Amino acid sequence: MEDCARKIKALTGVGNYLKDFIQGHCSYSKTDLYNHFYKQTLHIIEQAEKSNPWFTRNNILLSLQYWSQVLNENDLHDWLKHYSITAHKPKKIGVIMAGNIPMVGFHDLLCVYLSGHIFEGKLSSDDRVLIPHLIQILHTFDPQSKHEIHFNEQFLKNMDAYIGTGSTNTSRYFEYYFRNKPHIIRRNRNGVAILTGKEEKTDFIKLGQDIFYFFGLGCRNVSKLFVPKGYDFKSFFEGIFSYHEILNHHKYQNNIAYYRTVYLMENHKLWDNNFLILKEDKGFSSPVSVVFYEYYSDYESLETLLQLHQEQLQCVLCKEPMGNNSIPFGTSQTPALNDYPDGINTLEFLINLNQFN
User: Is the whole model's pTM more than 0.90, yes or no?
Assistant: First the structure.
């Protein structure tokens, strides 16, 4: 537990630095060390913006703010108290990281680090600078972590176990390549929201976060709405109007123009408020700038449908708790540390590796 205490203390230090950075206090209220990283962080954000147009400054700050909130001593202790992390010979864990939203792979790194194994990560080409920068800050608080966290340019070979995140097609390749090693392979998933007709404007403002944050590129973003038969979308569109400035982003603008043209040429009936297209569709994974919708007649049949497609769902959102482990509007992008992607307990998987020779 001494090793774990060292890491919790270091991660809390990173969280405190991020809090100061988000609040803009680092440049005058902290030590020279903080000032040094403050300038570096500004530079890294600029780099990330230039290398990936979807990584806007606001979206990067959203991600940094989330980690500033959960990297604290209380949350880390509460998370880890349910596990028995004992001294063991560290194993090399190859982690193939996603890059759909800023720092999406950091939770896997956190799990490997805290479980006492060696992290060997292959960064996504879409997210190459943010996580290594955060680890440079971590090294300051925990110099020993330099020997426990490594990034690799090449494909990861000869690891003791693997964690891979990719598209549905990529995951098939991962499953084959890593078939003889303990592994977690993740596929495409999406968030869905259930509307009942009783929502108010404030509810739609919160739901807008779940739809528009990170341009809808995250696996927890809402890509589909389930609505009662005969639902009038007028209140929904009025409620999300505050997000209209998303249309100023050129790639988002190109997306909505493209899909509007395609769908109209195919004679699909659409709801369109100029910055979001709603298309009736039984699918779950909608393109950027589009949200699918599907009518339901009663909650029991909807719950059955969601159960049948649970492997495609990352989270279900609604105004009030329902029997499907739903979460409130506006919370999709702030999961708890123990809310594991695809419902697979990453930390438990890593701890149990100690049973293998």
Answer: yes
